[in-house]
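Quick one: examine this chain and its backbone structure tokens and tell me how the chain folds. Here goes:
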Amino acid sequence: MLSRREQWVLADIERRIRAEDPDIARKFESGLGRRRRRRWPYDAAVLAAFALLVLGLVLALPVTSFVAVVLSVAALGVRAWARRRDRAPDDGPPP
């Protein structure tokens, strides 16, 4: 995994290449897109939480239902935080 500084340097190189030679940038554009973050862990956590919630409601177990709600809120919160972090503008190199 690259540090924030290394990510910034790579983004700077990409900006320079796009400015200096747009043809090369277009040729590499299809293969150099940003990697999408894996979202299946979040989806799996929400699905597991839903299953726990149903189980807790069917068996009348309030603790199981409570754990399910906490798990789903945590998974959705982490996913929202990760999306916000990935969309944050990069104003310059990190210190």
Summary: The mean pLDDT is 78. The radius of gyration is 21 Å. Residues 62-87 form the longest helix (26 residues).
